[in-house]
Amino acid sequence: MEDLIILLAFMSPLFLVLTIGGVVADFIFPHIKCINRYINRLPMMQNDIKDDKK
Questions:
Q1: Domain total in the chain
Q2: Is the confidence at residue 49, as pLDDT, over 90?
Q3: Which domain, by its residues, includes 8?
Q4: What is the pLDDT of residues 4-42, one digit of tens each?
Q5: Transmembrane region positions (predicted)?
């Protein structure tokens, strides 16, 4: 049981940092002009392309 508490003590700050980073990336970065121009120049991801290797 104490192993779970130690794991929780290490994982909670990690998830907190990841959450804050996601919020910054979604809501703060689009308001910064140079970062927004860079994001708009990136190619769109195409996840629905199927491989021709069969």
A1: 1
A2: no
A3: 1-41
A4: 999 999 999 999 999 999 999 999 988 999 999 998 898
A5: 6-29
Domain-located, residue 54: no
- 3-class DSSP state of 23: helix
- One-letter amino acid of 26: D
- The set of residues, in sequence order, having a beta carbon less than 8 Å from that of 30 and lying 6+ positions away, is 36, 39
Chain mean position to CA 38: 17
Q: How far apart are CA 22 and CA 16, in angstroms?
A: 10
Per-residue CA distances from 14 to 22, 25, 26, 32 (Å): 12, 17, 18, 26
